[in-house]
């Protein structure tokens, strides 16, 4: 579920070629998630990794992720612990 969500968000990424020829990418509506690399492919890969780490921190901290609904039912989590 989270992997598919990340892939959908990466498809929304906006890329810019900077003056030095490197690529800069960000995802609209997701503050603090960006990447910069020498090639577009490397930039996309880095953006995916940054977004995944950002999303996992949000999940760990029970924080809202724009565009994703997660039900944190602690009773259910305790049953599986």
From TrEMBL:
<protein>
    <submittedName>
        <fullName>Antitoxin HicB</fullName>
    </submittedName>
</protein>
<dbReference type="InterPro" id="IPR049389">
    <property type="entry name" value="TTHA0281-like"/>
</dbReference>
<dbReference type="Pfam" id="PF21748">
    <property type="entry name" value="UPF0150"/>
</dbReference>
<dbReference type="InterPro" id="IPR035069">
    <property type="entry name" value="TTHA1013/TTHA0281-like"/>
</dbReference>
């Amino acid at each position: 579920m989270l992997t598919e969500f990340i892939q959908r968000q990466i498809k929304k990424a906006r890329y810019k070629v900077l003056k030095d020829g490197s690529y800069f990418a960000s995802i609209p509506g997701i503050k603090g998630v960006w990447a910069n690399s020498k090639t577009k492919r490397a930039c996309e890969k880095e953006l995916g990794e940054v977004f995944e780490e950002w999303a996992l921190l949000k999940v760990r901290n029970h924080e809202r992720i724009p565009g994703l609904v997660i039900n944190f039912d602690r009773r259910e989590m305790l049953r599986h612990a």
